[in-house]
Specification:
The chain is mostly helical and 135 residues long. The protein is built from four helices and no strands. It has helices at residues 2-30, 36-59, 65-90, 98-123. Helix 1 packs antiparallel against helix 2, helix 2 runs antiparallel to helix 3 and helix 3 runs antiparallel to helix 4 (98-123). The protein is globular. The chain starts with a helix and ends in a 12-residue tail after the last helix.
Length: 135
């Protein structure tokens, strides 16, 4: 299970890296920096966090496969929800209502927060000693 989530998270991290660097390049070229918070969060939680989680799952065996799955899905939903919610809230390209954009932003961020908390639990549920590293 860890191997499956490892490659999923690393692939998504690579996609977020491309989106984040493209957004940074676009901002630099256009001289408009209104997307700075979105750019930063795509790279920090989308690229770096997802990549780190993917490497963790590649390196360690976790006792609870269900927890790995729950963490993986909350990570994906949280990163997408936070970054899209931030874009909707700050830029509002589709003229959504302010209540919708705020709730979308909050739910995405809260889901990501849950994901980080679950990851703490996951780190305490690895197989100990000689069996903890996947070969």
């Amino acid at each position: 299970m860890e191997q499956k989530w490892s490659i999923r998270l690393i692939r998504l991290a690579a996609i977020f890296a491309l989106i984040g660097t493209y957004l940074g390049s676009h901002m630099s070229g256009s001289g408009s920096y209104e997307n700075r918070p979105i750019h930063a969060h795509i790279l920090l939680v989308g690229w770096l966090s997802m990549f780190a989680w993917g490497i963790f799952y590649r390196a360690f065996k976790v006792k609870s496969q269900k927890l790995v799955t729950i963490h993986g899905w909350t990570a994906i939903i949280g990163v997408l929800g936070l970054t899209l919610g931030m874009w909707f809230y700050n830029i509002n390209p589709f003229n959504f209502g302010s209540t919708f954009t705020l709730v979308f932003f909050i739910v995405g961020g809260t889901t990501l927060l849950i994901s980080f908390a679950l990851f703490i639990v996951v780190t305490f549920m690895i197989h100990q000693q000689k069996d903890n590293i996947i070969h």
